[in-house]
Fold:
Amino acid sequence: MDQSGFVKLAVIGFGIVIASFFVRGISRIVLDVETASLLQAPLAIVGFGLLLYLFVRATLDFVGIWDIENPDS
Structure:
């Protein structure tokens, strides 16, 4: 993975988390609260999991265990 791929995945992760809030808010208009939470949960878990992976990957790059390639060097 290079730096541009890392940034793309970070933007996708934040987008998924934000989309989960929109899904919950819009579904609460037509459905009850429990159903809205059930619709939001998979998106929130996937987005949070992706961001957690990226955090661990960035930490391992900082320590020097698993490098993220820099295309400029």
Summary: The CA atoms of residues 20 and 69 lie 31 Å apart. Helices lie at 3-30, 33-63. The longest helix spans residues 33-63.
